[in-house]
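To illustrate the input format used throughout this study, we show a single complete record. The first block contains the structure-token representation of the backbone; no residue identities are included at this stage. The design step must infer an amino acid for every position from geometry alone.
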């Protein structure tokens, strides 16, 4: 089971674009750039880096400015660390524990699509039938990723080499809450959409990755706003999803990272969705008196 941050990127970005559409003007301050220097008087600077939680050959090596900023850091701050108990707990939460089944939630035709999509990664029909819809969405992410480490995994490896403290901003129960308390009707609607439009969503994901490589955050929002607009019947589900997964978590992470920012020399890695816009972490840090400057 992938990390919560690895939820199907296409749906997540589409939801976020819908939620932030009215705030694009306010967000132009952070329209381009994935690495930002964060500083305050009398404290050594820290850095905030927006990542894509995907494995792709084009992301196989961290950019030089990112490596340079990381080399100057004393602490790596991340969204969440999934080790041991956390993995078991997350998997437990993603499965039905009573007699409910996936086929009952989404119907036999969509269940067949889900099984066909997840069988190649070694998931059995019986196991898939016990997954909650959000659990299937997580695994759809893993079913199409390329081999190789994600940018996050590369940072973890570098931190381990340096025996560098790794500080999560969220715990496993918070991660579980984000997804497990998401209304079942919305889970089902988004999963059905993902299964019915996989090719289209993968094309949007590819376009998004190219925008990310160009470090164009505004373009990411435009791409996915257009994608959302094609399916107005999903607008309410996307808005609810975005509030839980992006906006609410951005507020929490902007607050919690400041404990390390106050010490200085922190390197914060989080999904790029949390950077852009008037409700993103960079805007929140400026509101809290930090100086935020683009590096890369």
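Output of the design step:
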């Amino acid at each position: 089971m992938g990390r919560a941050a690895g939820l199907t990127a296409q749906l997540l970005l589409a939801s976020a674009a819908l939620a932030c559409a009215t705030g694009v003007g306010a967000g132009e301050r952070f329209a381009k750039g994935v690495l930002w220097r964060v500083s305050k008087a009398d404290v050594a600077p820290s850095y905030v880096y927006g990542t894509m939680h995907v494995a792709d050959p084009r992301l196989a090596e961290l950019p030089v400015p990112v490596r340079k900023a990381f080399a100057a850091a004393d602490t790596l701050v991340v969204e969440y660390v999934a080790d041991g108990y956390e993995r078991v707990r997350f998997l437990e939460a993603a499965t039905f524990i009573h007699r409910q089944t996936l086929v009952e939630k989404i119907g036999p035709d969509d269940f067949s699509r889900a099984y066909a999509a997840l069988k190649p990664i070694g998931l059995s029909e019986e196991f898939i039938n016990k997954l909650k819809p959000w659990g299937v969405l997580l695994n759809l992410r893993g079913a199409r990723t390329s081999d190789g480490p994600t940018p996050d995994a590369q940072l973890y490896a570098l931190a381990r080499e340096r025996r560098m403290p790794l500080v999560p901003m969220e715990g496993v129960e918070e991660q579980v809450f984000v997804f497990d308390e998401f209304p079942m009707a919305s889970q089902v609607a988004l999963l059905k959409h993902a299964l019915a439009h996989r090719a289209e969503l993968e094309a949007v994901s590819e376009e998004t990755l190219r925008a990310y490589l160009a470090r164009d955050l505004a373009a990411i929002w435009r791409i996915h706003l257009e994608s959302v607009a094609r399916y107005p019947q999903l607008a309410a589900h996307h808005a609810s999803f975005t509030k839980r997964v992006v906006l609410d978590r951005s507020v929490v992470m902007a607050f919690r990272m400041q404990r390390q920012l106050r010490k200085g020399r922190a390197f914060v890695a989080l999904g790029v969705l949390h950077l852009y816009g008037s409700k993103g972490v960079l805007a929140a840090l400026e509101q809290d008196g930090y100086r935020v400057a683009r590096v890369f």
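Structural context for interpreting the output: The two ends are 32 Å apart (CA to CA). The chain has 15 helices and six strands.
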